[in-house]
């Protein structure tokens, strides 16, 4: 648990620093990353990230729920998007489940932390991997090269939630 | 009654005539004379009790066969003396010429070490490093050598045995491999500040021993090469043992060999019996298809005397063939809720038929057993999915909506029929287990016999042989119910089969009864009875098996649904 407390402190410090300096590429992507109830439970976290520029996600914020298992950091943390909020070819739209290799035990190493994992997920938004999709429709459109349909479909889903 | 002379004459003919031998071998299937041979043998035993002569003859004949083949095997680098001879296969009513060996993970590993020792002069790197290379290439020596001649030092770097300059962290003093004792060390993983022992490789990624131990413990059972937590530099077996404080690398090697066995499931099969550690290695699998085509099942026997079918990996199941066995087992399990769950939540790996539960992740599945990559939706190989358009989404799961048009009455009748056969099957399974237990006490009885009356070991052998025959008879009987279930009940041959079944059941029960004799003296007196009954069981069993095979060959027995 000392690891997660330490991480919490570093994250708070980093997020504060980021507001004051704008150099880092990742500076502005994380709106918030904190335990839902910092006084009681450090195993349930919530994060809000911004959609990357140059993607249909730009201009939207996305909520992620994070569960820290008891064995963390030997075992990867569990990340998922808020259900029915993320139309992305590597995310299950209905459940928010994310298919990313580093989130699986085989590829996870304890050197990763919550911050770096969140950055990896953000990069996934930027560069979808249609080769191993959870959202097959979007992956098909992307692979077919029909970008207008792809962007359109994502926009459609994103705007459902706004209204 | 046939005599010994006739018997050996038969073999002599085979040996002298090379063409015949070649034909016999090339066909690789059992001749129809084979069961005759066996019956023949038993008949002789019963009449003369001179089994030793016959066995000698047979051994000689088989050695001849083996010698011929061994010459071919000499260039096979993994060749070991063949532990099981064809003699066993013959006496089991199975097919001859199935050459296999019985191994353990340790045995395979030791063989690999021997290979590495041989290869060492070629590589000019320490044996430990070659071990890692072998592990990386799935113990495939040829592929390793190929890559080695292609890349040499680059390969070492790629796999993580050598450090590349750019990977080194600019820590001046910690860039040595091994354990260090540090005061007030702040571990990056657990974020504790403590005075502790640490470990790092040449890359300088240094973590406390506790964290390293947790990390390695998790990885040991995966059987993959373990690397530094932050880069691709490899932890060698020596490092692992050093970190863990004891010989843990053995576990890793064992897991690695296990995954090797599973990946090569065509040639290597685990003995399916509970807690049995043996692996059967069949070098030449080309003949397996031929066996199944003729509805034989290629049985093998591990060093613990467990017999199982090499084709389907299930326990010995004659007279049923692999298809019937498979169908029967599925059917039997279907009746339980467990299977309902398995059917709805899992799919079979298209390659090795292991049931796989998809509990998350994308549709790109990698079978944990044989590492086959496939698509969850269409159950075909993954490779084409990586590049082209998804065709498999077009597939509709409509056929899952089971709209059974058959009336419920019909279904009920079928269920009743199945339940009957299944109960019979089960009863013999239970009995076989009980007989096996009886077999354990027979060992004690035999011992008591030797001490009490002072008979020689060889004279008491008939008891354990009878037990063996009894268990084999029960097993065949058990599977014959599966065959009976799938057979057309109106056909004449089925009726003959059922008659045979009854005869075997009767023979088995008689032998079983005989084995319940308590007094050692009485047992000795009944020795001729034992031979008679055991021989009878064996004959009936072979007849039933042949009859069952006939049903299968003629298509009268067809596994459905």
From TrEMBL, chain A:
Residues at the catalytic site: 99 (glycyl thioester intermediate)
UniProt keyword terms in alphabetical order: ATP-binding, Nucleotide-binding, Transferase, Ubl conjugation pathway
Protein origin, superkingdom: Eukaryota
Similarity-based family: Belongs to the ubiquitin-conjugating enzyme family.
Protein name listed in UniProt: UBC core domain-containing protein
Listed GO CC annotations: peroxisome
GO MF annotation list: ATP binding; ubiquitin-protein transferase activity
Transmembrane helix among keywords: no
GO BP, one annotated term: protein import into peroxisome matrix, receptor recycling
Matches recorded under CDD domains: UBCc_ScPEX4-like
Gene3D superfamilies, A to Z: Ubiquitin Conjugating Enzyme
PANTHER family associated with the record: UBIQUITIN-CONJUGATING ENZYME E2
One Pfam assignment: UQ_con
Domain UBC core: 1-163
Annotated metabolic or biological route of this protein: Protein modification
UniProtKB/TrEMBL annotation, chain B:
Catalytic reaction equation(s): [E2 ubiquitin-conjugating enzyme]-S-ubiquitinyl-L-cysteine + [acceptor protein]-L-lysine = [E2 ubiquitin-conjugating enzyme]-L-cysteine + [acceptor protein]-N(6)-ubiquitinyl-L-lysine
Record lineage: Eukaryota, Fungi, Dikarya, Ascomycota, Saccharomycotina
Gene name of the encoded protein: NDAI0B05000
Keyword terms, alphabetized: Metal-binding, Repeat, Transferase, Ubl conjugation pathway, Zinc, Zinc-finger
PROSITE patterns xref list: TRIAD, ZF_RING_1, ZF_RING_2
Record's keyword annotation contains Repeat: yes
Span of domain RING-type: 183-396, 187-232
Top-level EC class: transferase
SMART domains registered for this protein in UniProt: IBR, RING
Protein name, as recorded: RBR-type E3 ubiquitin transferase
PANTHER family (alphabetical): RBR FAMILY RING FINGER AND IBR DOMAIN-CONTAINING
Acidic residues bias spans: 1-20
EC number: 2.3.2.31
Region (Disordered), start-end ranges: 1-22
Annotated GO MF terms: ubiquitin protein ligase activity; zinc ion binding
Keyword Transferase tagged: yes
Organism: Naumovozyma dairenensis (strain ATCC 10597 / BCRC 20456 / CBS 421 / NBRC 0211 / NRRL Y-12639)
Annotated GO biological process: histone catabolic process; protein ubiquitination
InterPro entries: ARIH1-like_UBL (IPR048962), E3_UB_ligase_RBR (IPR031127), IBR_dom (IPR002867), TRIAD_supradom (IPR044066), Znf_C3HC4_RING-type (IPR018957), Znf_RING (IPR001841), Znf_RING/FYVE/PHD (IPR013083), Znf_RING_CS (IPR017907)
């Amino acid at each position: 648990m000392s690891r997660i407390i330490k991480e919490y402190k570093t994250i708070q410090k980093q997020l504060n620093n980021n507001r004051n300096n704008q150099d880092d590429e990742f500076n502005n992507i994380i709106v918030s990353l904190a335990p839902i109830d910092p006084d009681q439970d450090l195993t349930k976290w919530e994060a809000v990230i911004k959609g990357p520029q140059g993607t249909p996600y730009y201009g939207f914020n996305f909520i992620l729920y994070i569960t820290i298992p008891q064995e963390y950091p030997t075992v990867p943390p569990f990340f998922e998007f808020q259900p029915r909020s993320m139309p992305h070819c590597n995310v299950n739209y209905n459940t928010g489940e994310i298919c990313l290799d580093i989130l699986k035990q085989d590829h996870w190493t304890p050197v990763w932390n919550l911050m770096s994992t969140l950055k990896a997920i953000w990069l996934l938004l930027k560069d979808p991997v249609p080769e191993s999709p959870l959202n097959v429709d979007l992956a098909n459109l992307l692979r077919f090269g029909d970008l207008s349909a792809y962007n359109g479909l994502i926009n459609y889903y994103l705007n459902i939630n706004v209204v | 009654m046939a005599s010994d002379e006739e018997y050996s004459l038969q073999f002599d003919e085979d040996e002298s005539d090379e063409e015949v031998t070649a034909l016999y071998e090339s066909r690789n299937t059992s001749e129809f004379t084979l069961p005759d041979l066996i019956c023949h043998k038993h008949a002789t035993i019963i009449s003369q009790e001179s089994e030793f002569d016959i066995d000698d003859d047979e051994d000689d004949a088989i050695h001849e066969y083996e010698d011929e083949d061994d010459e071919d095997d000499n260039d096979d680098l993994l060749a070991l003396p063949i532990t099981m001879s064809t003699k066993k296969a013959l006496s089991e009513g199975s097919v001859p010429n199935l050459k296999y060996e019985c191994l353990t993970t340790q045995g395979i590993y030791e063989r690999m070490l021997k290979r590495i020792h041989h290869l060492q002069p070629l590589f000019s790197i320490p044996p430990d490093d070659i071990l890692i290379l072998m592990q990386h290439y799935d113990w495939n020596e040829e592929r390793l050598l190929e890559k080695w001649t292609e890349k040499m030092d680059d390969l070492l770097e790629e796999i993580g045995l050598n450090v590349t300059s750019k990977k080194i962290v600019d820590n001046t003093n910690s860039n040595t491999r091994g354990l260090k004792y540090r005061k007030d060390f702040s571990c990056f993983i657990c974020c504790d500040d403590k005075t502790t022992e640490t470990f790092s490789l040449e890359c300088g990624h240094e973590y406390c021993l506790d964290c390293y131990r947790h990390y390695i413990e998790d990885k040991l059972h995966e059987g993959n090469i373990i690397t530094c937590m932050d880069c691709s530099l490899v932890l060698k077996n020596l490092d692992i043992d050093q970190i863990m404080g004891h010989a843990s690398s053995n576990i890793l090697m064992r897991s690695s060999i296990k995954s090797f066995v599973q990946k090569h499931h065509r040639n290597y099969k685990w003995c399916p019996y509970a807690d049995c550690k043996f692996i059967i290695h069949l070098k030449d699998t080309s003949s397996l298809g031929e066996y199944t085509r003729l509805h034989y099942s290629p049985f093998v026997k591990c060093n613990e005397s467990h017999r199982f079918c090499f084709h389907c990996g299930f326990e010995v199941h004659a007279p049923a063939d692999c298809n019937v066995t498979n169908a029967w087992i599925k059917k039997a399990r279907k009746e339980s809720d467990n299977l309902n769950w398995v059917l709805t939540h899992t799919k079979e790996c298209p390659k090795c038929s292991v049931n796989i539960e998809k509990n998350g992740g994308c549709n790109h599945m990698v079978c944990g057993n044989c590492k086959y990559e496939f698509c969850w939706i269409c159950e075909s190989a993954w490779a084409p999915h990586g590049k082209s358009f998804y065709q498999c989404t077009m597939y509709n799961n409509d056929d899952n909506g089971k709209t059974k048009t058959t009336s419920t009455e019909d279904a009920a009748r079928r269920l009743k029929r199945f339940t009957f056969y299944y109960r019979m099957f089960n009863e013999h399974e239970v009995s076989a287990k009980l007989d096996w237990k009886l077999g354990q006490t027979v060992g004690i009885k035999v011992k008591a016999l030797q001490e009490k009356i002072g008979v020689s070991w060889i004279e008491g052998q008939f008891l354990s042989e009878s037990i063996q025959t009894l268990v084999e008879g029960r097993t065949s009987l058990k599977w014959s119910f599966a065959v009976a279930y799938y057979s057309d009940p109106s056909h004449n041959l089925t009726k003959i089969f059922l008659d045979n079944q009854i005869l075997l059941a009767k023979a088995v029960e008689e032998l079983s009864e005989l084995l319940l004799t308590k007094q050692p003296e009485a047992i000795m007196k009944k020795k001729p009875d034992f031979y008679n009954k055991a021989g009878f069981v064996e004959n009936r069993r072979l007849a039933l098996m042949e009859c069952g095979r006939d049903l299968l060959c003629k298509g009268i027995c067809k596994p459905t649904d």
